[in-house]
Each structure stands twice: as C-alpha cells, then as structure tokens.
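Exercise 7. Given the components listed, write out the predicted structure of the assembled complex. Treat all entries as one system.
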Amino acid sequence: MTRSRLQVIFHVQSEAALIDARARAIAIEQSVEMPPAAIDDAAILRDIVGAVDGVADLGGGLFEVRIALAAATVGNDAGQLLNMAFGNTSLHDDAVLRDVILPAELEEGFGGPRHGLAGLRQRFGGTHRAFTCSALKPQGLTADRLADLAERFARGRLDFIKDDHGIADQAYAPFAERVPAIAAAVRRAVQASGHPTRYLPSLSGDLEQMHRQVRLARNEGLDTVLIAPMVAGVATLQALVRAWPEVAFFAHPTLGGAARIVPELLIGKLFRLFGADAVIFPNFGGRFGYSQDTCRRLAHNATAPNPRLRASVPVPAGGMTVERVPEILDFYGTDVMLLLGGSLLEARERLTEATTAFTDAVARHGRG
Amino acid sequence: MTRSRLQVIFHVQSEAALIDARARAIAIEQSVEMPPAAIDDAAILRDIVGAVDGVADLGGGLFEVRIALAAATVGNDAGQLLNMAFGNTSLHDDAVLRDVILPAELEEGFGGPRHGLAGLRQRFGGTHRAFTCSALKPQGLTADRLADLAERFARGRLDFIKDDHGIADQAYAPFAERVPAIAAAVRRAVQASGHPTRYLPSLSGDLEQMHRQVRLARNEGLDTVLIAPMVAGVATLQALVRAWPEVAFFAHPTLGGAARIVPELLIGKLFRLFGADAVIFPNFGGRFGYSQDTCRRLAHNATAPNPRLRASVPVPAGGMTVERVPEILDFYGTDVMLLLGGSLLEARERLTEATTAFTDAVARHGRG
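Answer.
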C-alpha cells in the first residue's frame, strides 16, 4: 500500500499537561479508531494509524495539532476525505478543523474545478474585470414572477443570475416549470443586451434528481448551476462535476457551520478541490461575522496557483451594496465575482437601473 | 399554497436589547433572505416570510428563539429541511439549532424508518432484550482478515457486526471484495451458532455508487447497511431508504459537528425522520463529551411514540466496556442496541469469548 500522507491541522483547547495525550487520541480517532495495542499488523501500525506530526502551544490554552493520515484511507472520495479529516472529531467540542494539506496524488485524483476562474472568464470574452452576480428572490414567487425578475436583472447586464439557495423544487415554482421560464426570459434579455448573462438554477434533492435537473438545464442551453455541497453531500458535488464536464458549478456555503471547520478550508480549499468553479461566501462587513482576514485567506485558498487545480472564483456575498463595490474590488482585486441580492431587489421597479449601476461600477473600477 | 408551518428553535447568544432584532433577522435569513420591504406579494409576506413565534430569556445572555417557517418551502426533501432550518444561520457563531417541530404532513412525507425498532426485533424472533453490535476494525486490514474477524465476532452471537465507519472502498479492502468475503464468513458462523447475526457494510461515495453497493449487499443476502448521513448528505439517505424498502439503515454520526446542531435533534430526531432504522451516537462516560441528559433526550427522540414514524433503535457507542453493560441497560432500558468495538478487539485471540461475555451480559440483564 502507498505510504503517501495527508496532514490535518486542528486547533484544540486543552490543558498543557494533557495536550500530547489528546493529540494522540485524535490521531487514533481519525484513523483506526481502536487501541493500537490491539492491532497486530505491522503495516497498519506503520502506515494507517494516524501520527502526531507536531503540537504547538498557541497560548491561552489553545494548541495547534498536526496529524498525518494515510492517503490510502481516503482514495478519491470527497465524503471520505471529510470523514477522515474531521468525522468523529467533529463530535468533540474542543477541536476546530483548521487546514488539510494534501499530497499531489489526492489533488490530482479530485481534480478541482473543470472550468474555474479562467474558464468562466472565457465565457465573457476573456474579460479581466471582476464578475457580477445577483440572486432571484424571494422564494414563494411563481415561475413567471421569477422569470420576469431574471429578465430585468439580465437587462442590467449581470454576468450571472442565480436562484436563491432556498429555491428548491417547491410546489409554488417547480424546477421543471421554473427553469425553462427563467432560461427563456434570460435569452430574451441577452438578445436585447448583447451581454451573455448566465442563469444558474439551484439543484436540490438527491444525486439522481440533480442529474435530471442538470439534464433539463442543459436542454435549455444552460451551462452553469448552483449546488450546496454541505446539504447535498460533497460526494454528490464530486459526482456531478465528473458527469457534466461542460457545466460550471457554483458552491453555496449553506449549512457550512463554519465555526467548527474554518471557512477558508471548507469553502476556499475543499469546495475548490472537489470541483466547484465558483465558491460563494459571506463577505466581511455584511450580515455575517466573517473577518477581513478570514475572507482574504478564503479568497487566497480559492485562487492560489496550483499546478494540479484550476482556480475557483471567490464570490463574496451577503448584505453588500453598490456603494461598497470600489472598496471590495480594492480588497479582492479583479479575480472575484460580486454578488448583490437584496440591495438590488430593494430598488423594486427600478431594478434594471440599479443593476446597471452595479455592473457599471464594476466595469469602471480601476479605469479612472 | 398550504399555510402549514414548521417551528425551528435556536439558542442565541445576544445582548438583551438586540435579541428581538436578531430573532427577526434569523426569521428572514431562514426564509426569504431579503428585506421584506422589497417584497410586494401579500401571500409571500403572509405565508413564506419566517415569523418569530417567541423569544425567551434563558439567562446569562442566552435566548431561546422560535421561528415559524412555511412547510411549503421544504417539500419532502431532507436536504431542503436542513437548509431551511439551519442553512445560512449555521454560518453565524451566535446560534445553535436546538429543535425542529414538524407538522404531521412533513412527518408523513418523510416517513421515518421503514423497519425501526420493531422491525429489527422481528428479525431476532421478536426478542425483548437489548440488541448487541460490534465493529470491524482497524481499517487497513485486508478483506480476508476482516472476514476472519467477523466470523469470530459472529461465533460470539452478536446481533449486528458493522464495518468501521472509516472503512469505505479503499484499495486495501475494496467493497466488492470485502463484502462477499465477510458475508460468507458470517453465514458460516450463523450456521454454527444458530443465531441470525447481521453484517452491515458501510456505504461510501455518491448515491449511484451506494446503489451499486446495496445491490451487491443484497446479492450476498444482506438486509442491513451503515450510512453516515452528514457525509453522504441527508437526501442521499432519504433516496436509499425509498429505493430499498427491504433494507434497514443504521446512521453513523460522523461529521455531525454536534456543537452547532444539538445531537438529540440531529441524530435522535432528524436521522429517524429521514428513515434511519438505528442511530449510532457517542455514549456518556465514553470517549466523547455527551452528557447523560443529552443521551437520554437523544434516545427519547429516537423512540418516542409517534403515530406517523416508527421508532429507531438508539445505539450508544464509543469507548464502552462489558463491565458497563448493566449500568447502561439500567439507563436506557431494553429498547437499545449496545455497540462495543475496541474493548472487544483488545481481547485479540480471545475475541469470541469476550464477545460471548458481552452477549451473555445483555441476555442476562434483568433476569436475575
């Protein structure tokens, strides 16, 4: 069996006298989950049992613990990677998963985004500016009302219009009715605007239902979809990415419970690894509590050059306004997609004008 | 659209002066996710926007917040239920999901376990004692070694033998090789013991792979499997339960991150709702930090009489020993399954004898 290892990094609250034993307990919990004394196979003791690679005192009763795990325990299964990295340890209150360092073979096995930042840029003539995005809301609207909203957004020349992540396959706007209606509305607007706006339906249910949804979307000429990996299961994302190479996948952070897996790891690094072309996350200064540092690290993880993985597009979102566009672009640069939702929808009958002001602000940035 | 509502209950850390606004913000976040002022549809404002049903001061800056959400936003999609109940709010540090109160139509739509406690009892001649269970470990063993281990466990007359939840489809013991070998070994032991021991393979990967795995298990005569709903995605569990009515499903808590969704809700109530016939959880006094109260509430949620849902079997596990059997049975009663893993495996060459001591202790309890 291969000796290749991945490294999993935790922050652990502990008394100093107990941290070495706690680190060893985590290494066992995340690998063989039984007393090593009861293992009589030398290869398993050497290759499979987790090893403590290091313990560092961070002060204030907090320790960084590095655990090495056998890559062979993961294979190329996204769910199994989360299971090995954090599975049972997520049930303990004292540990937060901080990072996962993968060997090249695992990165190659997963493969990351099939389109990513560069592929999405190509869809818009290779533009170098930041991308723009908004969301269809509120849920409860009929397919026709959502289509009307999408058409007005698209006339404002957005790059991407996504379903709100709460929009699934509800009786008031079933997927099979909603998606053709919205796709047709966006096609009409694109014809008028000349801008190749993409509509992203939100996938829901199980993998088989999602396959049917993607097939329907493809039949409507769509090439981009939205998925919530922590709701769907990361293996579901992985399966869809493999099955639909021509489709770009946006990852929604819902149910990310980011207090226990730090968001720069879960959203920035792992969603990219599993193939998300764009990763949506709560921006600093909006209605979520992410700090500037968290957002900077998350965007870095999503885009950092990697010979094996395409860059994902970081998509800060959550309570942003047009007024903040320059500040946000100064912060992230242009390898980013800005997602404004509620603050555009508040314009109500002036939606297309507000959207145009948004897309203009992004287009203008850095020019003057 | 139906006016039926589900109620979602959070514990929220807040200053007293801010809690009403925070409660309203959660109600909006978990429903329309946009400013109500920008919604011009009266039916949506009335039926879809989340409502604050109550705020109670629990002292110490902690508040109980009850939010009512439209059942129509959930449909019968397990993933969508978690998305609506906790999706974006899981990204906030201040809120813990405490409970979900479902209307009858949602319970009927999900349907809960297809076998459950009573169905599993029937498989063992309608026995009234507690069930017994152990786990095949460590991962890294070959299929033949795991089969040998299973045979020795089964000769000790266990009811259930499950793959360790870390055992997936790894190269050192692929599912297609491991499951037939172990199933054959357990059949041999059952022939010798006369006790109808069940072997539960652990499902991994995506839904399509899991369907193939269940099919293979069925071909080997198996009727019980193990799944980790938070790794696989709860919609994956739901799809399998619907597709394989003759199979019983055990839910593993891995990646349950129970600090943010209280375990009695996630494991006891929701896994049951979605169809798990038995729910594994860390017992108090073992190597996880669950309290007696948490375990009592979890077992209660899994088994409480419900005209629409069969009872699931509570399966306390995690660092238990034969010596604790009487104490644990006194605590849970007999509607329970005891899962001992490492403490049996430590017996090494005396595994069958240690297992027999375990199954005898359960059989004896309450008799004298």
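Discussion: Chain A has two domains: 5-110, 116-364. The domain at 5-110 of chain A is CATH 3.30.70.150 (Alpha-Beta Plaits).
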